[in-house]
């Protein structure tokens, strides 16, 4: 198959994917979105005859626009722009999960610091303030007191981009020092790992320790439902265990977010699963299904 | 320029020193400078040209 890779930075994740695709004899078109232009009917990017395009843009804004343009040209793209739109925004992400009855941390959005402070006081301390966009745990605040809340809200309102004035306030989930990252393709788990840290942020990007994790039936069900809730695709579903007993068993899980341009190098290292191979298996199946449906892209190069 | 089967040599754009990088790098790939640890982007392969990689931006992530 002929696969387009939308990117602006080849990280280890993209390198693993490119190597797997080439090893299987697939034709790869690397599309550096920084160098291309996207018109209403055509693009300078080499997207003609692509069987499928894979969005690996590191920049969320580029990801959202590039996938939207490719979709408008009739180029099959994963993940779909609709999925990106939901996953890129924590408020939309939370709403989608709640609407699908996926347990997710209680969340409120407020547009002024006064309203945000009311939300924070109602949640009680500690609670969490997050930017609606962003990743890797950046600019997340665990708020322990009213004084801290007032200071953080004032800074955000004064210094921030307008998105920082969308105050996303969330209950603090007292997780057992770890959360769970699952890579799933159209709801089917590929691999799962825990991310552990003494810090309240356990992201692998923050240096959390990673270990392979065996999903139980409940977690598997939640991953599938969460994936459907955001439109499916190749996703990173993040869960936390709740109601953990002395033996470490969890009563249930809560899904805090679903990521649409998921990194997988840590999963590939932490588990026995050949993650890039499984991803390419999925891409091959996806492209074959699209070909069977007769979805061929038009000539769209400028 | 290939120095052996596993590495290429290139000029570090920050220090000007000649550095060795993996032979299988590709355009767009990010590598760490063995001299300064700075992230470098591979701009071209023939000849090998490296530039300091873009700084982290607010909307980068997953």
Automatic annotation (TrEMBL), chain B:
InterPro entries: LysW. This is Acetylornithine deacetylase. It comes from Halorubrum tropicale. The lineage of its organism: Archaea, Methanobacteriati, Methanobacteriota, Stenosarchaea group, Halobacteria.
